[in-house]
Amino acid sequence: MTSDRPRCICRCEEVSEQALLTAIEAGASSLNDLKRRTRAGMGLCQGAYCLPEMAEMLAARTGQPLAVIPPMTMRPPVGGVTLAALAAAVPAEE
Description:
The protein is mainly alpha-helical. The protein has helices spanning 17-25, 31-38, 51-62, 83-89, and strands spanning 8-10, 15-16. The chain has a two-stranded antiparallel sheet with strand order 1-2. The termini are far apart. The model has no long low-confidence stretch (mean pLDDT 88).
């Protein structure tokens, strides 16, 4: 039984295989470029699940050997800091 639903590569950001292929056809030539164009790899797992498959797709479509495709630049998630937290971090003057 086949499904008409597009195959999801990046579960966290819900990026389909077709979205990635479209980005590659439009000129994406690196994993960072795919990430910027589609948000794949930007979710909670930071590419832990989708990165290998994205790299294989990129290698197959661009003709680059898989071994020469550089890894995606990893960036830790950033969150806001409240003023109360900042004030609590500064020791009170005596």
